[in-house]
Structures are given as C-alpha cells and as structure tokens.
Amino acid sequence: MIDAAAISLSVVVPVYNEEGNVGPLVREIVAALRSVTRFEIVYVDDCSTDRTLAALATLKAEVPELRVVRHLGNAGQSTATRNGVKAARGAWIATLDGDGQNDPADIPKLLARRDGAPSDVKMFAGWRVERKDSGSKRWASKWANAIRASMLKDDTPDTGCGIKLFEREAFLDLPYFDHMHRYLPALMQRAGWKTVSVPVNHRPRATGVSKYNNLNRALVGIRDLHGVAWLIARARRTTAEEI
C-alpha cells in the first residue's frame, strides 16, 4: 500500500485502445522512478474497446503504485489528462502518451531541471529533437508548430510532445477545453508562469495504431488556435493580498 501523503509525483497516462503498450510502459515507469522519488502512476482509460482495461487490472496486482481511472464514455485526451490530474495525489504531475513513444527515463531529467529552476517555472515541456514518426506527420507538426508560435508567441518548439512535468495546482487553475493539452505551455504563460523546453528521447510506436490523423488535427487546430489567442488577449493578471 502506497502512503498517499508521501507521494511527491504522479505520472498521468491517458490511454485509448493501447492493450499492447500498457504493460511495457508501466514497467518502464517503475524502473525509471523507484529509486528516484515517491510516485504513483494514474492511468486513465478513455472507454477503450479492446483489452486495455483488463491489462491494467492485471497490472495492479503487480505494481502497487498503479491506479486506474475509467471513463464511462469516450471523451478524448484532454479530458482524460485532466481527470487523471484531478485524481492525482502528487503536487507535481508528469504526463506521458500511452503509445510508448515517450521515454519514461526522461522523467528524472525533467525533475532535475525543476529542482534547479526558479519557483516561477511551473512547466517543463518535452522537446522531441529527433522525432520517430512518419515524414508526413513530422512535416504536419513542423507546419503547425510554426503557425502556433507565430500566433501565440509561446517560445515552445514542440508543444505537442506528450511528456511534460508541471505543478498540479497550476494546471488545475488553467481554463479547460477539449484539446487544451496541445496548448499547455501557452496557457501556463497566460496564467503568469514560466515554461522551459527540455530535449527528450522519442521512439517509434511498437504496437497499435495512432488515434489521430493530419487532417483532423488541422481542422480542429485552426479553431482551437484562434480560441487560445483570444484567451491570451483577454487575460488579466494582478497580485492580491488579504488585509
């Protein structure tokens, strides 16, 4: 049994139909963190239609750090991430994509960067310097990142990387909307916090298929990008004190 009060880090992993990836990724997370910090792993199953949930239930008997949250209806990655963060007991959150392309061995690197950073840096975002995706996906991401950077001025070369480290309280204070996970550095900056991009490893998908394609990302992204730009333009911040 894990002492909830002792947990300092929660690793949140949203998944949908990733039965072949959950076992290897959970074991990699454990190997990366057991000698580093007190942690828990919070998987959020987004109403998978394969045996993802059954695989996670089996893993719970093997991995005491593992918790599983189950969606009763498919809601998407942003909602799964947010529900995982809400369920988490650590003050800091590390996120990973459930497809195994993010490397859990990078989490200690992010923790080290956090420990040496000023207190107003609330997010450490992974930066996939050498992506292991198809040429079309790399091209689409490069194009999307360039447009996003020109509109949002978030100084983040790879906002779509799934591995991130951030303060739980700061995240839950952000405005919530579907697909918000693609704009977290800009939203953190809007809230008055600083963010840092950290080069991380990226790996080919070992099993399963991607849940996104370039067209649906582009169509949704255009609308979301204008919405986030509006949120940034309408932001108002000030300090307050009790008297």
Automatic annotation (TrEMBL):
The keyword Magnesium does not apply. Residues 10-171 form the Glycosyltransferase 2-like domain. It holds the Pfam family Glycos_transf_2. GO terms for cellular component: plasma membrane. Keywords: Cell membrane, Glycosyltransferase, Lipopolysaccharide biosynthesis, Membrane, Transferase, Transmembrane, Transmembrane helix. GO terms for molecular function: undecaprenyl-phosphate 4-deoxy-4-formamido-L-arabinose transferase activity. It comes from the Bacteria. GO terms for biological process: lipopolysaccharide biosynthetic process. This is Dolichol-phosphate mannosyltransferase. It comes from Aerolutibacter ruishenii.
